[in-house]
């Protein structure tokens, strides 16, 4: 089977968030990037598990510049067979989905994986857009995926429980926590990743539909107030007059 896994980068969680150009852009100066965890831990690893069980290939695809290649090599070190980088902007979800769908249509992939969201934008948009552009079924927030022949059984999160669905390949799926367990690349994988194929292709024509007007940081948290356990009246007064939760 042929699996395509969408890989994006996200700032390391220790990154200090700052903006540039009058707060219209994220300031990338000095930022350490990682593979978006939902893409790596759940989408990529489950695709690798299926390949190891059923045979086939795992290709990763990323929309971005040459500075994305370290995270692409990380995905190759974990076990992907080859990678594609579409040399375009990764600012607009529709434009990203358009580029990936255009490539995926030509590749005849059985399953296109995405993470459920990126941890920096939390958009959850790209997977659904890819499916629409490819006219394929889309299962979001999947926590379990089993394949028997070309029939998939998928568990997905829903309010208060789990929904189980069945469908045939090809389809697009967004992977959430529970789909797989994180893998740490070993030395052999890291060394092999250096020579695995990484194809760079130019983007097809596509307009970006969204422009970011500005960013702002959340308000700083106020200092904690320590209330004596014996002073219940003071606690109730603060919850009523300051926190306004009672």
Based on the model shown, name its key terms.
single chain, alpha/beta, two-stranded antiparallel sheet, nine-stranded mixed sheet, 246 residues
Biggest sheet, in brief?
Answer: 9 strands, mixed
Alpha carbon gyration radius: 21 Å
The residue fraction in helices comes out at 25-40%
Strand content: 25-35%
Q: What is the strand tally?
A: 13
Shape: globular
| Average pLDDT | 93
Given as residue ranges, the uncertain stretches (5+ residues, pLDDT < 50) are: none
Strand order of the largest sheet: 11-10-9-12-8-1-6-7-13
Structural class, by secondary structure, is: alpha/beta
Please write the string of helix (H) and strand (E) elements.
EEEEEHEHEHEHEEEEHEH
Task: Count up the helices.
Answer: 6
Explain what you see.
There is one protein chain. By secondary structure, the chain is of the alpha/beta class. Helix content is 28%, strand content 28%. The protein has 6 helices and 13 strands. It has helices at 37-54, 69-78, 93-107, 126-134, 187-193, 232-241; strands at residues 2-6, 9-11, 19-20, 25-26, 33-35, 57-63, 82-86, 111-115, 138-148, 151-158, 161-168, 171-175, 198-201. The strands form 3 sheets. The chain has a 9-stranded mixed beta sheet with strand order 11-10-9-12-8-1-6-7-13, sandwiched between helices. Strand 6 (57-63), helix 2 (69-78) and strand 7 form a beta-alpha-beta unit. Helix 2 (69-78) crosses helix 5 and helix 3 (93-107) packs across helix 4 (126-134). The longest helix has 18 residues, at 37-54. It is globular, with a radius of gyration of 21 Å. The chain starts with a strand and ends in a 5-residue tail after the last helix. The model has no long low-confidence stretch (mean pLDDT 93).
């Amino acid at each position: 089977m042929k699996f395509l896994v969408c890989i994006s980068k996200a700032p390391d969680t220790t990154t200090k968030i700052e903006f540039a150009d009058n707060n219209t852009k994220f300031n990338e100066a000095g930022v350490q990037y990682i593979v978006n965890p939902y893409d790596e831990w759940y989408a990529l690893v489950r695709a690798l598990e299926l390949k190891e069980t059923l045979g086939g290939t795992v290709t990763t695809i990323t929309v971005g510049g040459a500075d994305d290649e370290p995270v692409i090599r990380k995905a190759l070190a974990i076990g992907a067979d080859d990678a594609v980088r579409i040399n375009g902007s990764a600012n607009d979800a529709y434009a990203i989905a358009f580029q990936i769908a255009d490539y995926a249509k030509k590749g005849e992939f059985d399953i296109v994986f995405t993470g459920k969201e990126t941890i920096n934008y939390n958009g959850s948009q790209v997977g659904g857009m890819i499916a629409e552009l490819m006219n394929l079924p889309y299962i979001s927030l999947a926590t379990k995926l089993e394949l028997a022949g070309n029939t998939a059984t998928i568990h997905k999160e829903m309010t208060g429980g789990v929904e189980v669905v069945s469908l045939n390949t090809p389809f697009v799926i967004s992977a959430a926590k529970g789909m797989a367990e994180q893998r740490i690349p070993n030395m052999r994988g890291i060394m092999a990743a250096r020579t695995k194929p990484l194809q760079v292709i130019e983007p097809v024509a596509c307009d970006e539909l969204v422009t970011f007007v500005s960013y702002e940081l959340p308000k700083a948290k106020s200092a904690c107030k320590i209330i004596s356990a014996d002073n219940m009246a003071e606690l109730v007064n603060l919850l009523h007059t300051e926190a306004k939760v009672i």
